[in-house]
Batch of 2 targets.
Target 1
Amino acid sequence: MALVEIRDVYKSFQRDTQRIDVFNGITLDVDEGSFLALMGPSGSGKSTLLNLIAGLDKPNSGTITVAGSMVSAMTPSQLAPWRARHVGFVFQQFNLLPVLTAYQNVELPLLLTRLSKKERDERVRLALGVVGLDDRMDHYPRQLSGGQEQRVSIARAIVADPTVILLDEPTGQLDAKSSQEVLALLRRLNSEFKKTIVIVTHDAHAAERATTVLHLEKGDLIRGDAVPSLRSDAAAAAGMPR
Amino acid sequence: MKYLPLVLANLGRHKKRTVLTIISVALALFLFASLQTVTTTIASAANFGNARRLVSTNATGIVFTLPIAYANRLQAQPGVEAVTWANWFGGRYGDGKRFFATFAIDPKSYLEMYPEMVMPEEQKQAFLRERTAALVGKSLMDAFGWKLGQNITLQGTIFPGDWTFTIRAVYKPTDPQIGEDVVMFHHEYMEERLGRPGQAGWYIVKIDRTDRAAPIAKAIDDQFRNSSYPTKTGTEQAFNASFATMWGNVSLLMGTIGMAVVFAILLVTANAMMMSARERTREVAVLKTIGFGDRTLFGVVMLEAGVVAITGAVIGLGGAKVLYKATHFSGGGFLPGFDVTGSTLALGSAVALVLMVASGVVPAIRAARLPVISALRQVE
Amino acid sequence: MKIPFVYNWRSVLQRPASTAFTAVGIALVVAVFIGMLALANGFRAALARTGSDSNALVLRRGADSELSSGIDRPTANLIATSPHVALAGDGHPLVSPEVYVLVPLVRVGGDSTKVGNVVVRGISEKAWDVRANVRVVDGHRPTSGRAEICIGSKVVGRYDHAAVGDRLRFAGRNWDIVCQFSAGGSAFESEIWGENEQFMPVFRGEAFQSVSFRLKDPAAFEEAKRALEADKRLQVDVHRESTFYVQQSQLLGDILEFLAIVITSIMAVGAVFGAVNTMYAAVAGRTPEIAVLLTLGFHPRSVLASFLVESAIIAAIGGVIGCLIALPVNGFVASTTNWSSFSEIAFNFRVTPGLLLAGLIFAVVMGVAGGFFPARRAAKLPVVQALR
């Protein structure tokens, strides 16, 4: 069973009087330990797909299952704790709470658990160490560079050891050097720590680091580099084996 | 102004906030006007008084009476045209919670002395004719729901027992300073029932020329100075003024609260204005790109502050004026003639103006000074 | 699942101007609230302390105040013989027939029109014993037979010539001030006391206004009341002294409290609106942060609670400031006319810990009320839209 199973999902938005269809029956599996990049032009629905996986949004029809839980059927009050446990989310911007230090920002997801102060402290330091910012843990976001902020965000995304890490255009606001840092980190998380990562991006460099690249065009998935563990619905229709 | 639609559109963007702010301003100005009016009403009571009427009380204290025999001697005083008197009866009606004054009077001379008490002629005659008749002020009639011709029974506090009168006349004063919360009856009725001659609580004396008030007053007091019932005579105005001072610190209290209220509003509105200003940056930049000048934008922001302040002022101040006039509010009889004066309205408007300037000026300057480029960068 | 308190605390500090404005707005409302209730409190307290539970006050039937009452000597003597009257150590009844009048005295610093009607009470020697809360603090008690008076501590310094050793003039005579008395902050302190026999000839003649006596058995007040009121020779009403004076404070006390509530309510609405505006702006400005918190998995309830806590913090700050502003008013002497008795009474503003606490709670309630809808909006934030 794949870690994330997206089955026959339809999603549309209502904008004033117009209905905009984003997905028309999309199907996708994401295996554990994979590093998937979703690319596509703006408006193609990349972010929406991420939101659906995280349970931030619901499909009009179809199902989404993550680590055995049917996310698409859960209620908002069920989703909140679920998300805390299973999902690490990194945005393009607005990641950190400006009034909290890096340490405190990273600690946030752990406050939703029953860990003791000591246990939380251990994990925060660990996470910050992984992203290479343990010397800056008492800095406020305004004292960090863009790249450093994003790395702190990633630390926060991994600190609770979530099932899947989702990133929405993480390098969109960063300069070349910072982007490199971030992407190298992601690569390491995937190869060394075996984290499952789904990244939405239109940065080709980012896509390079991924093990699989999928293109979204007008709500349809088109494979980039095919890896046997993934398939699009075209392939599924053709009945190809996994 | 041609920018008014723009201003109104801006205000309409955050309808809730605009409405809330206007209501706060209105409420606070309403409160301000009310408190100021308490002060002005008390003060004006001190200024009211017919210049040709003098009031004589017992110099020992107002709780002491004067003999009725003084009436003739006062009448004989040079310069005195007419004399009347009244005595405080001290009556309660029902559970006694509603306070009002009760006077025993010499009906004919009293009504002549106070032409400001207006009533239909036949009611007046009915009252004069009947010894057990009562004359009641209109607002008191309304407060108790009494009807003309009704019998009312008062409990005497100073003169014990139940006292029954028939309401034969209802008066409305032409000057609001003359109390309406009064019941008046024939002093002869009281004398009859008590079996002894009455006493005068105070005398009212009408003089021929206003500039002779001081010498006549002195002459009266000189006459009785060494008797057992010495008098203290002064103009009606002075008499009313002394009542006004009985309020003690109250005026000061009201004034202080009024100021606190004004300050509080200033803060609330200024706060609201400044907050919207912060969100303003994007549009201001766009407007400047289109070609709106710095000065124009300054004006637009000030106008916005102005609309809020003026609307609040009209509702709050106007509301106070209308409300008190329409309900004939008189503070349970303690504040007769309670009316928001022109000066209070002017003062309130000045406050609104200060408010407008104070809350608009900082955002207005900021908008005027905003360098377009940096603002546009934020927009992207 | 709590959002850390430090987040709210620091966010409040992040916008100092906005927080300050709202807090001061709330502070002013709280200050007025405390101030006005302290005024009403002080007035009621002064009167409540005046009467004793162990004393009874006898007035002519139907009289609603000491001023409108009249009791002649025979009646007073009869009351003194009642078995319900306690006896002093010397075997004499603890009974005090008293004259009660008002005289106009010129206030300090005012012209002759600025007079206050001060209570002048005629007493006998026993009065000092019947009224246990009164004691001479300076000078000596008036000597019998002399035109000597004793003034209450709230009279001192507020009227011309009102000082021990000076001389007051009223009722056509000069009176030597030989002492000053205190009475536990009660209404008596606004009075002037002198010998009955000195006052009667210059005032109302041979009649007292009231008779006070110590109840032999305070618990048996009802019985004493019934006995005396039923006595056909007397025609009197008997009141428990404490109750009577509390009633005398009813009218003005109610008015002051009513005013306090009306005025502070209106101001409170304004302050709440201020809080609402502040919080709406706070929420609007922090939409991204809220989105992050919701995404992380914090429950919308926690977000709601978090913003409520924030507005409560601002309000609490305002409440403390308000208490601090109002505090100095404690002990201030205010004076006005108690319309029930027509007499001028001076009393202290009385700020109690209970009042301060009420003020703080009031502040927090205002803050939470103001913060509720904005907080709800934060909690209901559609995350997806916010992330766009």
Target 2
Amino acid sequence: MAKQYGFYVDQQHCIGCFTCQVACKDKNDLPVGIRWRRVREFQGGDTIIENDVFKSNVFAYWLSLACNHCEIPKCAINCPTGAMYKREEDGIVLVDQDKCIGCGYCTWSCPYEAPQLSGKTVTKCNFCIDLQAQGKNPACVDACIMRVLEYGPIDELRKKYGNVAQIKGLPDPSITKPSLVITPHKKAIE
Amino acid sequence: MKDLPLIVFTLCMQAAIGAIIWSAIVRLKDKEAPVFKTNTLIALILSIVGMLASLVHLGKPHLAITSLSNLFSSWLSREIFFSGGFFVLLLIFWWLERTDKTEGVRNVFCWLAGLAGLVAIFSMGQLYRQTIMPAWQSANTFVDFYATALILGAVVLYVAAGKERGRLPRLDLAVLAIVFIQIAFVPGYLASVGAIPGAGQESAALLAGSYGVMMVLRWLFVLGGIFLFVLSRTERFANQVGILYTGVGVLVVGAFIGRFLFYVSGIPIGIGII
């Protein structure tokens, strides 16, 4: 494989504005309930009494996540028709809508909930390959007002931002080896 | 009940495969028992019903045949391949039996169909084990699928035999033993799934909690059905098929509940559990 493209998320500075999710839905004209990019809120902690003093350790953080175009794409490996495939030149995982028969097995295979049954077939993030072909950025990346989303060859992203692909709340990355780099929120790795 | 087509598909295919396996075994001793033709016909009908049901769950049923395209890596492709292979071999076997072809050829196709069926069940199990549901990844999936095949297969053979079931070996006792083995696996299964943080724990909590009553009902139905099954073999009820059919009905309900629980317990390791 020549290159493997992936996403970078700076979770520390994500404010959970959902603009990336909305931009993705708008650009791809997604129906109600289908979200190729999803912003999720994680929260936890408690308020405790210590020496008659209320102490709070509550926290909340956001994570914007689309398809991670994994190195081991279980969705494509398990797809019975070959509709789900990994592009040789850039490692982007795509669905051939003509071949997909809507069995939904990929939705049972992806731990990131990327493939979603929409009508008779499965759809998922296609990394805005149409925009990329025109030399433009994916819609989510361009829409992010906090500039916390980036994309590019994953080895370059890893060189720049490190190797973190697992935070609290995400599945073990050894399952599919996601092409994802995260600068985690401090509470997401404690 | 979005998984209803899959419940019907897996139960029907497993029942048909089990029926052929049992008939192959019984045939070793009693070569010309009259029950075989009916048994093969019921197995054939069950596999047709199963395959039709599996089409219902597809978005594009007319392209179902393309699911054979990825035999190289997909257990779903392999499941369809071997289920289809079982069906084709069964069809040939059924025709050979109807036309009274030589016994040797018939036996070969009976065993070939049975073997294809066993591999189909293995592929079915692997298919579920390759998902992101800890409750399905367990080896218990194989135990459940093969046990169901043997239990429902025996039921099919007994129903096919009707009043002549006395001529068959004591499959009812064999089934009872299989159910006990299946039940013996349950505590270990629940403990191992429950030990997986997140989705595993949720599945175990579901089976032991909100679906706990259903879980108990499942085994009560299965054991109750087998009890009637055993009773139907006693001299007193030898000539009555009513008790046999009641037993079969109760047993099938138990198997259905069991498969329903299998699907509801499939909770994916997903995002968000911290």
